Amino acid sequence: MTPKKPPLTHFLCLPITGGQAAPQWQASLQQFRNDIVATNTANSPFDAKGSNIPVEGIRPLGTLHLTIGVMSLKEPERLERAVDLLKKLDLVDLLKNGKEEEPKCVRTPRQAGEEPTTATGETGVSSLLAKPDQSASSPPLILSFTGLKSMHSSTSTSFLYTSPTDATGRLYPFCLSLKDRFSAAGFMTEEDRALKLHATILNTIYAAKAYPSKTLVQGEDGRLRVAKVEKAGTENAVDGHLTGNEQQDEGQGNEPSNQEGTKAEPLSTKSKSQPPEPKRERKGKGKKQVVRFDARDFINHYSAFVWARDVRIEKVAICEMGAKKTKDEKGKVVREDYTEIASISLP
Questions:
Q1: For 199-251, how does the pLDDT look when each residue is reduced to its tens digit (9 = 90+)?
Q2: CA–CA dist 166, 150 (Å, integer)
Q3: Which stretches of the chain score pLDDT less than 70?
Q4: pLDDT for 244-301, tens place per residue?
Q5: Are the C-beta atoms of residues 170 and 98 closer than 8 Å to each other?
Q6: How many angstroms separate the CA atoms of 164 and 197, rounded?
Q7: Cα–Cα distance between 15 and 25 in angstroms, integer?
Q8: Are strands 199-203 and 214-218 parallel, antiparallel or unpaired?
């Protein structure tokens, strides 16, 4: 019998909503929500190239981040050691070395199988825990987020995201270095796929929370309706990683090129033919239903949309899986955030 995988409890990430980035993200998410709501009405059916998208799958502002890797840190002492490793990292050194080694890292990330080394050439966990020298300066890491992509085939997807761009070329090598150090120390869960830095915009696994015992069905008029199913709902997740013993397959999606722009083009509101019904699938025992839809029209119209520009990355953080909801006195959810366990500031 195959042993069960340990439950995923935490993740290493770069928060992307600090400072002046928050209002940009908020405005962009609101525009995206408005477009979905407008195209999900009977008076404004979606174009034949797309199908209605569950608005409940849009991720809240407080959950946006770039995941570097996921971890199982259930035991308090294991979590404490992971935090200790984070606090002792020399981020300035990692940023500098990452920039110098970028071509090698980008072409063949993690294929050499070599243990990460420090600037002095030392290897092993003990060297990674050495006291960092933060005296050297390094320019801040500034990112922009443009376009909309699908994690699966755009004709049948459940996951939409936007990718970061970094003019200095340091982001990806820097994140690989962080991932390598946590993997070498035995904290990071190994994955058989390359690191894909992305900010999740919509994931329909969260839409089921609005329909705990139901699912979405598309009628002849193109509108989404609710229909009962045997079992539905979601589990706490981050970027498609379930916190239980099973994980949702993110797959590999299309990669439209990044383009500069400020606004998404108006979406078509005339139905030329009946859009296909969203697919619903359930993988494995205990798995929750996932609504899939045709996202080609949205991806096309948001290809040059700038979600946020000049986003300064202020820290590297360890966060707890499962976003926590904050409610007002009437019980309405007013925000949703991942709990930050520890962080270290970037220059």
A1: 999 999 888 655 544 444 444 444 444 443 334 333 456 665 554 433 333 33
A2: 20
A3: 1, 40-52, 98-137, 208-289
A4: 433 333 333 333 333 334 455 555 544 434 444 445 554 444 455 678 888 998 899 9
A5: yes
A6: 7
A7: 12
A8: unpaired
**pLDDT given at position 109:** 38
The pair of structure tokens assigned to 50 is 């797309």
- Contact of 203 with 162, CB cutoff 8 Å: no
Whole-number Å distance between alpha carbons of 232 and 285: 12
Residue 241 confidence (pLDDT): 59
pTM above 0.85, yes or no: no
